[in-house]
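Intended use. Records like the one below are meant for learning the mapping from a protein sequence to its folded structure. Do not use them to infer anything beyond what is encoded.
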Amino acid sequence: MAGEVTKSITAENTFSDTIQVQGYFNVSVTGIAGGTEVTVQKISGVDGSNYTDVDSFTADTETYGFEAERKTYRIGVKTGDFGSGTCKVRIGCKWIDYLSS
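Structure written out for the chain above:
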């Protein structure tokens, strides 16, 4: 089973739906302009209720990550990190479970 979450972002505090990943996953970011910073986050902490920043990007990128445990991720633009334009973001992996944000 394969899956992905995507989002076109035109404002701050905008994130994709969540996706559970384990193993290798892809991260794609296109259309970054005007000082926008895109952040990849995962749910962490003992109680699993906090988002932790995993990586961030200020230029278009195509990269991958690795998650040893099954964890919930999302990608987007935090408050104060949007510049201008429309950026498109994606997290994709070989198998997933969708969770509503």
